[in-house]
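Work Package 3 (structural annotation) set out to generate three-dimensional models for the target panel prioritized at the project kickoff. During this period the team completed the workflow that converts sequence records into discrete structure tokens, so that structures can be stored uniformly alongside our sequence database. As a representative example, we reproduce one entry of 206 residues exactly as it appears in the project archive.
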Amino acid sequence: MSSRRPPTQVREPEGPWRPTPAEIAAAEDRTVPDVIGRGLRILFCGINPGLYSGAVGHHFARPGNRFWKALHGSGLTPTLLSPFAERELVALGLGVTNLVDRATATADRLSREELERGARRLAAKVRRYAPANVVFLGIGAYRTAFGRPKASLGLQEDAIGGARIWLLPNPSGLNAGYPLAALERSFGALARDVARAAPSRRRAVR
């Protein structure tokens, strides 16, 4: 069993900044604080932070990531936010967390056991904060973490702690199968559904 440094949180300089290659390399196993509050409309759930996000201490921070553009393009945010302004999401009823807290160079560094533990932690978090919807950004990690190998993109029949589940594509710039326009359409379908959805109970997976 490999030994890892205990997860640490980065001390953030004031204002937006770009980490050096050395700072990025040193971000292995760091954590990025959740952006969360009670009763959110949507809690977005990434797989885990990348090293760039671990270095700066903000979600979806690598310049090639399309998360913030997809949020704005879909109408979920009125302006294009920077990762450094992520705390503004809570006032809009939005939040961000991850299945696994620790930063890695790629998500394939995570074991099945880590993802399954992350699913249990997420379920407890959902029960505590009671978001209306949990949106997973990355279908493969969801399939593994929750034992749903046939899950497909879109609204799911399952629920977590009363929250509806959506699966959307990973907004990473490496996900070439989903250009920005396709991501905006996916996020837009989510936005329209959330706006019209009535409270409902679904079969809980956790």
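Residues 30-196 form a domain with the Uracil-DNA Glycosylase, subunit E fold (CATH 3.40.470.10).
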